[in-house]
Amino acid sequence: MNFFEKTLMFFYKIPSVLWSIVKLALDGFFTVFNSFFFMIFDGFLFTVTTLISALDLSSLAFTEIASWADLPPQLIYLINQLGLPQCAGILAGAITIRMILNIIPAAVTRI
Predict the structure, then answer these.
(1) Which of 56, 78, 55, 54 is nearest to 66 (CA)?
(2) What Cα–Cα distance (Å) separates residue 42 from each residue in 9, 27, 28, 34, 93?
(3) Is the pTM of this model over 0.90?
(4) Contact by Cβ (8 Å): 66, 88
(5) Please, is 85 exposed, middle or buried when counting C-beta atoms within 10 Å of its C-beta (0-12, 13-18, 19+)?
(6) CA 43 to CA 52: how far, in whole Å?
(7) Per-residue pLDDT tens digits for 22-81
(8) Are 87 and 58 contacting, i.e. CB atoms less than 8 angstroms apart?
Protein backbone atom coordinates (compact mmCIF):
# COMPACT_ATOMS: atom_id res chain seq x y z
CA MET A 1 0.00 0.00 0.00
CA ASN A 2 1.27 3.37 -0.88
CA PHE A 3 0.75 6.61 0.98
CA PHE A 4 -2.31 7.58 -1.09
CA GLU A 5 -4.15 4.34 -0.28
CA LYS A 6 -3.33 4.65 3.40
CA THR A 7 -4.63 8.22 3.42
CA LEU A 8 -7.85 7.13 1.69
CA MET A 9 -8.33 4.30 4.21
CA PHE A 10 -7.81 6.78 7.02
CA PHE A 11 -10.49 9.10 5.64
CA TYR A 12 -12.87 6.19 4.99
CA LYS A 13 -12.57 5.09 8.62
CA ILE A 14 -13.27 8.55 10.08
CA PRO A 15 -17.11 8.26 9.91
CA SER A 16 -17.13 4.83 11.56
CA VAL A 17 -14.80 6.06 14.32
CA LEU A 18 -16.94 9.16 14.83
CA TRP A 19 -20.07 7.00 14.92
CA SER A 20 -18.42 4.74 17.51
CA ILE A 21 -17.57 7.79 19.62
CA VAL A 22 -21.14 9.11 19.35
CA LYS A 23 -22.55 5.69 20.28
CA LEU A 24 -20.22 5.47 23.26
CA ALA A 25 -21.16 8.99 24.41
CA LEU A 26 -24.89 8.30 24.05
CA ASP A 27 -24.53 4.98 25.86
CA GLY A 28 -22.73 6.73 28.71
CA PHE A 29 -25.35 9.49 28.80
CA PHE A 30 -28.23 7.02 28.98
CA THR A 31 -26.43 4.99 31.64
CA VAL A 32 -26.00 8.11 33.78
CA PHE A 33 -29.61 9.12 33.05
CA ASN A 34 -30.94 5.69 34.07
CA SER A 35 -28.76 5.62 37.18
CA PHE A 36 -29.96 9.08 38.20
CA PHE A 37 -33.63 8.17 37.89
CA PHE A 38 -33.03 4.83 39.58
CA MET A 39 -31.41 6.68 42.48
CA ILE A 40 -34.41 9.01 42.78
CA PHE A 41 -36.90 6.13 42.48
CA ASP A 42 -34.94 4.03 44.98
CA GLY A 43 -34.93 6.92 47.45
CA PHE A 44 -38.68 7.32 47.03
CA LEU A 45 -39.27 3.59 47.58
CA PHE A 46 -36.97 3.62 50.62
CA THR A 47 -38.96 6.50 52.09
CA VAL A 48 -42.28 4.76 51.45
CA THR A 49 -40.96 1.49 52.87
CA THR A 50 -39.71 3.25 55.99
CA LEU A 51 -43.04 4.98 56.50
CA ILE A 52 -45.03 1.78 56.01
CA SER A 53 -42.75 -0.29 58.23
CA ALA A 54 -43.13 2.28 61.00
CA LEU A 55 -46.86 1.53 61.03
CA ASP A 56 -46.92 -1.86 62.73
CA LEU A 57 -50.62 -2.28 63.28
CA SER A 58 -50.66 -6.07 63.40
CA SER A 59 -49.89 -6.42 67.11
CA LEU A 60 -52.19 -3.50 67.96
CA ALA A 61 -55.08 -5.04 66.04
CA PHE A 62 -54.46 -8.45 67.58
CA THR A 63 -54.25 -6.97 71.09
CA GLU A 64 -57.60 -5.24 70.64
CA ILE A 65 -59.27 -8.35 69.22
CA ALA A 66 -57.78 -10.55 71.94
CA SER A 67 -58.93 -8.22 74.70
CA TRP A 68 -62.44 -8.30 73.24
CA ALA A 69 -62.26 -12.11 73.29
CA ASP A 70 -61.36 -12.01 77.01
CA LEU A 71 -57.95 -13.63 76.59
CA PRO A 72 -55.72 -13.23 79.63
CA PRO A 73 -53.12 -10.46 79.36
CA GLN A 74 -50.27 -12.96 79.84
CA LEU A 75 -51.40 -14.92 76.77
CA ILE A 76 -51.77 -11.73 74.73
CA TYR A 77 -48.23 -10.71 75.74
CA LEU A 78 -46.86 -14.14 74.84
CA ILE A 79 -48.53 -14.16 71.42
CA ASN A 80 -47.24 -10.66 70.67
CA GLN A 81 -43.70 -11.59 71.77
CA LEU A 82 -43.74 -14.69 69.57
CA GLY A 83 -44.56 -12.48 66.59
CA LEU A 84 -47.68 -14.36 65.56
CA PRO A 85 -49.53 -11.19 64.46
CA GLN A 86 -46.60 -10.25 62.19
CA CYS A 87 -46.50 -13.82 60.87
CA ALA A 88 -50.19 -13.67 60.04
CA GLY A 89 -49.65 -10.34 58.27
CA ILE A 90 -46.76 -11.70 56.21
CA LEU A 91 -48.74 -14.79 55.22
CA ALA A 92 -51.80 -12.71 54.32
CA GLY A 93 -49.61 -10.41 52.20
CA ALA A 94 -47.95 -13.36 50.45
CA ILE A 95 -51.28 -14.99 49.68
CA THR A 96 -52.65 -11.68 48.38
CA ILE A 97 -49.65 -11.17 46.10
CA ARG A 98 -49.94 -14.74 44.82
CA MET A 99 -53.64 -14.29 44.06
CA ILE A 100 -52.92 -11.02 42.23
CA LEU A 101 -50.13 -12.65 40.20
CA ASN A 102 -52.42 -15.54 39.27
CA ILE A 103 -54.62 -13.04 37.45
CA ILE A 104 -51.84 -12.48 34.89
CA PRO A 105 -52.22 -15.01 32.08
CA ALA A 106 -49.35 -17.44 31.65
CA ALA A 107 -48.99 -16.56 27.95
CA VAL A 108 -48.00 -13.00 28.86
CA THR A 109 -45.34 -14.07 31.36
CA ARG A 110 -43.55 -16.51 29.04
CA ILE A 111 -40.28 -15.29 27.56
Answers:
(1) 78
(2) 49, 22, 21, 12, 22
(3) no
(4) no
(5) buried
(6) 14
(7) 999 999 999 999 999 999 999 999 999 888 877 777 777 777 887 788 888 888 888 888
(8) no
